[in-house]
What does this fold into?
Amino acid sequence: AQSVTQLDSHVSVSEGTPVLLRCNYSSSYSPSLFWYVQHPNKGLQLLLKYTSAATLVKGINGFEAEFKKSETSFHLTKPSAHMSDAAEYFCVVSEPGTALIFGKGTTLSVSS
Amino acid sequence: NAGVTQTPKFRILKIGQSMTLQCTQDMNHNYMYWYRQDPGMGLKLIYYSVGAGITDKGEVPNGYNVSRSTTEDFPLRLELAAPSQTSVYFCASSYGHGSQETQYFGPGTRLLVL
It folds into this structure.
């Protein structure tokens, strides 16, 4: 059965410093993996997705993630945090014929 | 394109009351979904639809009903509201249903049952 674990429930960074949000997954097949962002009182917005093409995936707003099959990880990174990046981030795994499985989310706080 | 829209944004219900959460998409997507999001948790699938007239249960369907009479609309019905249904409800849509499909989400409906 597929599952996804976000290793940190809360990450705090200073503006201008790197961001790392960690995600491990479990899947019996070649999964698709997504990162969604949710700003306060807003719906979820797709940041990026991995669909078995390039293992390094670039998304919107300077975010990127690397699919590492050997480590079953799909960590989200950004070189320099901005105040507007403060939000909830969800790692999501999907297998053929199944529903999306969401992680519990990581809250990113950015201080000036 | 408005994308996925949901109404109302917020509602307070008394135990036992009923209500319908509205969801509309203007992207001509075949697939639509209802999720609930509880504090500190990821989203859980309630119901989904693969097209007009076709719906199916997700992971947590108890206490809810859906219908899909048109491509655009996918309302979620709560018949007898219970405190356990206090949550944020998100509607989503996608063009296809494959594992690689991107789902597009509405802004959510916050429901409080007292």
Chain A has a mean pLDDT of 92. The first strand of chain A starts at residue 3 and ends at 6. The two ends of chain A are 41 Å apart (CA to CA).
